[in-house]
Write a structure and sequence with these properties.
alpha+beta, 14 helices, globular, 15 strands, 44% helix, five-stranded mixed β-sheet, four-stranded mixed β-sheet
Length: 458
C-alpha cells in the first residue's frame, strides 16, 4: 500500500512540474550585478525581424537589480535593453530564460538557452567584423583575398551553428540561410566595390554567382527579411548594368521583377519582392502614375495594394509646388525651430538616424557643401528620427555635424513620417523660398549635381 501511495505522489509531482512550463508565454528573469536597473525593455529587432513577427516594444517589470516578467510575444528576434546594454535574443512562447548580467559577461540558462547562448556568440562575431565594410575593406582586397575572407566568415557561421547543435529546426534554418544570404550579399557587391578602387578589375569566369547556394523559390525564405532585401539589391544591380534602359530607375526596377527577369516562380515570393521593390523606390520615381498602374495591374495582395494606393494619393499631394507642411522641433541647444520661420531661404532637409550607415557617410559631404554655400540664403536642416536622444547629442558634438540639428521625439517623428512620406533613410527634401516643395526626393550631399540645383533656386 505504501508503495502505491509513493507512486501516486510521484505522478502528482511530475504532473505539477509539467504545468510550470507554459507554452503560451515567455518567462524572462534576470539579475543585474553592480548597477541598478533604470531602463528595461524588450523591442523587436528591425534588422532580423521575421515576416510574421509583430513590431513591439514592451517595458519589463523590475526591482532595483533584478527582473521577472511573463510575456506573450510572436516568435522571433528581439533586443533586450538593460540600461546601456542591448542583448540580441530569440524568443518563442514556452521559453523560460534566466539572465545573469555583469560588466564582463552575460550568462543565460533555462528553456531556450541554446538558441540565445549561440546568439551571444554570433552577435559578438558580427560586431567584431562590422567595421569591415565594402568602402574601406573589401574593395581593397583582390579577388582571391576577398573570396577567401568571405568564405571564412561563412564557414565560421556554419561551424558555430553545428557547435551548438541547435534543436529548433526553424531557428536553425533561419541562421543557416542568413549565413548563405550574407555570403551572397558579399558576392553581389564586391565587383562594383573593387572597380571603385581598381577600374580595370573584371570578375573572373570562376567568380561565384550570387544565388548559387540558395533556392530562390523556397517559400520558407518568406520569413527572412534578408531575402527580399537581397533580391531587391540584385534587381537594382541588374537594371543598372543593362545597356538599354529608361531614365526612371524605379519604373525599370519594378518592370524587371514583374516581367520575371529574376526567375522567381513561387508566386508568394514574387509578390513579396514586387511589393518591397515599389515600397523602397516609390518616392524616387519620376513616373509616379506609370509605376502605380504597373503595380496595381500586377498585384493580387489587397492589403499591399491598399497601402500603396494610399501612398500614391499622398505623394500626389506632395508634388512639386505643393505647400510644405510646417513643423516645430527643438535644436541641440533646446531652441524651438519652425519651418515657417525659415521662409525666405532655400531649405535642404536631411532626415537621418544615428544607426543609418548611408546617412552617416553623407556627414562629411554635407559639411563640405555647406562650407561652399555658407554665404547663400540656404538653410541645412538635419532632422534625426528613430534614434536615442543621448546618442544623437553625442554624435552631433563628436562628429561636428554642420547645419541646424533637430531631434524628433516619437510623437513628432510619427507626424513627420506621415507628412513627408518617409519610408526609408536617408531622405532629402528641398523647399523653395516660398515654403513650397521643390523636390520631394532630393539628391544626396555627395551628388555633385545638388550644388548646381540649389544655386539655381536662389
Amino acid at each position: 500500500m505504501n508503495d502505491i501511495f509513493k507512486i501516486i505522489i510521484l505522478i502528482l509531482l511530475l504532473s505539477s512540474c509539467k504545468k510550470e512550463i507554459n507554452s503560451d508565454v515567455v518567462i524572462l528573469k534576470g539579475l543585474v550585478e553592480e548597477n541598478d536597473i533604470t531602463h528595461l525593455e524588450i523591442k523587436t529587432n528591425e534588422l532580423f525581424k521575421l515576416y510574421k513577427q509583430p513590431v513591439a516594444t514592451i517595458k519589463l517589470n523590475h526591482s532595483k537589480n533584478s527582473f521577472n516578467d511573463t510575456l506573450n510575444v510572436g516568435e522571433g528576434y528581439y533586443d533586450l535593453t538593460i540600461n546601456e546594454k542591448t542583448i540580441l535574443v530569440y524568443l518563442k512562447n514556452g521559453f523560460q530564460l534566466n539572465f545573469n548580467i555583469s560588466k564582463k559577461q552575460i550568462g543565460i540558462t533555462g528553456l531556450g538557452e541554446k538558441e540565445n547562448n549561440y546568439l551571444l556568440q554570433r552577435d559578438k562575431f558580427d560586431k567584431n567584423i562590422s567595421s569591415k565594410n565594402f568602402s574601406s575593406f573589401y574593395s581593397n582586397l583582390n579577388e582571391i583575398e576577398f573570396l577567401k575572407h568571405a568564405n571564412s566568415i561563412y564557414r565560421y557561421r556554419i561551424n558555430l551553428i553545428e557547435k551548438w547543435n541547435l534543436e529548433n529546426s526553424k531557428f536553425k534554418y533561419i541562421e543557416e540561410t542568413f549565413a548563405k544570404l550574407d555570403k551572397a550579399h558579399k558576392y553581389l557587391n564586391y565587383p562594383k566595390a573593387r572597380q571603385s578602387v581598381d577600374p580595370s578589375y573584371i570578375a573572373s569566369n570562376g567568380f561565384p554567382k550570387t544565388f548559387e547556394t540558395i533556392d530562390i523559390n523556397d517559400e520558407r525564405l518568406m520569413d527572412l527579411p534578408f531575402y527580399t532585401v537581397l533580391m531587391f539589391l540584385n534587381t537594382v544591380s541588374e537594371v543598372h548594368n543593362r545597356k538599354h534602359q529608361s531614365i526612371d530607375k524605379s519604373l525599370e526596377t519594378l518592370k524587371y521583377v514583374i516581367l520575371d527577369s529574376l526567375r522567381i516562380k513561387n508566386k508568394k515570393l514574387k509578390e513579396e519582392v514586387a511589393y518591397r521593390t515599389i515600397d523602397w523606390t516609390f518616392e524616387q520615381t519620376d513616373s509616379l502614375d506609370k509605376v502605380f498602374t504597373l503595380y496595381k495591374n500586377y498585384t493580387k495582395n489587397e492589403k499591399y495594394l491598399n497601402e500603396i494606393t494610399n501612398r500614391y494619393l499622398k505623394i500626389k499631394g506632395l508634388s512639386k509646388g505643393s505647400p510644405a507642411t510646417n513643423f516645430t522641433i527643438r535644436d541641440s541647444e533646446g531652441k524651438l525651430i519652425s519651418l515657417e520661420n525659415l521662409r525666405g531661404n532655400i531649405i535642404y532637409i536631411d532626415f537621418w538616424a544615428t544607426w543609418c550607415k548611408p546617412c552617416l557617410s553623407e556627414i562629411k559631404p554635407s559639411s563640405q557643401l555647406q562650407e561652399k554655400l555658407k554665404d547663400k540664403e540656404i538653410k541645412f536642416l538635419n532632422i534625426c528620427i528613430e534614434s536615442e536622444y543621448n546618442t544623437w547629442k553625442r554624435m552631433v558634438l563628436n562628429q561636428n555635424i554642420e547645419g541646424i540639428n533637430l531631434f524628433a521625439d516619437k510623437e513628432i517623428e510619427k507626424k513627420l513620417k506621415e507628412d513627408y512620406m518617409i519610408q526609408a533613410l536617408p531622405r532629402y527634401v528641398i523647399i523653395d523660398k516660398n515654403g513650397k516643395i521643390y523636390d520631394f526626393s532630393a539628391k544626396r550631399p555627395s551628388d555633385s549635381e545638388l550644388e548646381v540645383e540649389l544655386i539655381k533656386l536662389l
